[in-house]
Amino acid sequence: MTxxxxxxxxxxxxxxxxxxxxxxxxxxxxxxxxxxxxxxxRPRVPRxxxxxxxxxxxxxxxLALLGGWWVASATGVLSPDVLASPxxxxxxARELWSDGQLTDALRVSLxxxxxxxxxxxxxxxxxxxxxxxxxxxxxxxxxxxxLLRALPFLSLVxxxxxxxxxxxxxxxxxxxxxxxxxxxxxxxxxxxxxxxxLLEAMRTFGLGGWRLVREVVLPGALPxxxxxxxxxxxxxVIALIAAEEINSTSGIGYLMTQAQSFSRTDILSVCxxxxxxxxxxxxxxxxxxxxxxxxxxxxxxxx
Length: 303
Prior knowledge:
Shape: flat
Distance between the termini: 74 Å
């Protein structure tokens, strides 16, 4: 009995000593820093990039493309019959601008694009809210709208010429149809993703109908709405090019048709560049709207 008690005493003494030793070791590790096998986390803090650097990086690609075009034209690799040189294109643009042809054509084309885009955005927004917010609306409208969305809008050009003639109505409606579906899909998806618990809470407080859509649903679906707006803006320029092929007597498309008849690659290049600049302006406008309506996203994306 005495031997057992002695053994237990030794064990307890050894455990206490081990605990003291372990505590001392932990203390030494804490005093000396982290364990050698562990990696100290160093989170990366994003720093906003200077505006000048961003602008320089964005213009680097177009400048490189312009330089390659100039070199290919100067060395004879690119024939003037295939594509005019940058200097010739600049002279043609100056000529068209000075005699008013380019400004008149640009005004007509912008009017078509803006009107078609306005109708398309309004229709897509309305249909998206109805199908995304109402189960009955989704069951009635979503299937036929998805069927129409699967149709290439370019295939509708001959049909629109039969229905609406060759006037401005056919061109504007074609642009509106092309821009409706991106806005519709984005709006419907954004409305469906709004938190249902938030909607139920707002209904509990007596908010319903149009006020619920305006004050809760649309702000909650704002990122999707802006994504659809951006896609529709870009697609409006593509639809404008197709619309102006319908026997146009004015606009950028008419200038292209006239230049094609006389094999003026310089004027053709000017028209193509104008279409490209319109698309770039549309994208910049959509980005500006996103920064204005959702400034926290722009700050979060800064690196």
